[in-house]
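Folds vary. Our protein:
___
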Amino acid sequence: MAEAVGVVASIIQLVSATAKLVQYYTDVSNAPTEADELVGECSALTPLLMRLKKDPKLDNNQAAKSLLEPLHALKERIDRLAEKLRPESRLRRLSRDVLWPLLKKEMREVLERATQLNSFITSWISMDVKDLADSIKQDTAVLPDIIKTVQKTLSMTVQNERRQIREMMHTMVNFFAPVSFSEKQNEIFSQRQPGTGQWFIDSPNFQEWLSTPGATLWCPGAPGSGKTFIASIVVDHLQSCVKKERDTGLTYVYCDFRRRNQEPTALLANIWTQLILQRDLSKTEVAQLEDDLYARRVKLSAAQLNGLVEKEFTDGKFQRMFVVVDALDECNEAQREVLLDHVSRLYPWANVLITSRVMGSDLERFTDVRILRIISAEADMHAYIKTRITNSRKLAENVKRKQDLEEEIVRIVSERAQGL
């Protein structure tokens, strides 16, 4: 009798939990197909549960006991899912393109459990007590294998979906932004000697820019002063920073007058693609990008690209981003005007850092501008020269034979370099 009372209580609790989950799904707009299927299955489960509650076979303790585990298991999963969908939940503040992919796995699990319970209760109601006892023994024996098969199938489905998303994104990125700046970044930063450029990262101006949303840091420097080298150090430092903040993006471009494709639209496209690749796009999002943008095989305008970047923020996918533009002076005047005009429109979301020669008129369109001049620091120069000496077998052997030769080489080269 105790088992029967427990089953009745579990049925009432499950009916209540199911009703709550269905209500939460109804309140959230643009639910995916999986959510509709789950609502339908839960709705079909309720009348079955009410029939079960009145079934005379519950008086048999062994038969009633077999119902407790599946009832409890489904209720626990429904409660967890409902908790994430309640109006006060932080997840409910996310856009649907972010919310539903996060819950997809749990929805599938609840749907499968609800479907299994529906079938089980239907069979349970129609069986006599003896047949039911035999069925319970058989189901218990094969259940682990069924669960393993379902889990394996789901895992393979998820992996295939992720592979399809990666392949489609790779195709679209290559079309809209064929130049990859990550190789340039790795090439330049790999030449850094330990500690060089740290003066720039530690400077008050850089630290203030880093902590002030929407600020611009203009970094002028003479030719050969190491602007690109400093830019690579900044990018590396920012990569470490954004890893700790999922809602912060990082984009960077290296201008080069020798590169054919240096139109502002190409650079802006690179900024956009770098940004969206820093988050997990759902299959729905990728399909929408393909239909809306890629299907026509037409390059996007600067205004369209700006709108796409802004949408990442207005939709709540990012809260802040860093944009590093190196060697702006290697763009011609017309290119600079268009690029700066559109980059400045990313205020207040973007912190912009630009390295270039001195061009004061370009600062007017930006808000909250700081200036940090790039110079060839003496410590950086000394570290570089000493590394070159170490890497040169001939020089290294001569330095070993003459005690003061290394310091003499460092002094003379530093003086003749004149800050370059």
User: Anything to note?
Assistant: Confidence is low (pLDDT under 50) at residues 129-133. The longest strand covers residues 248-254.
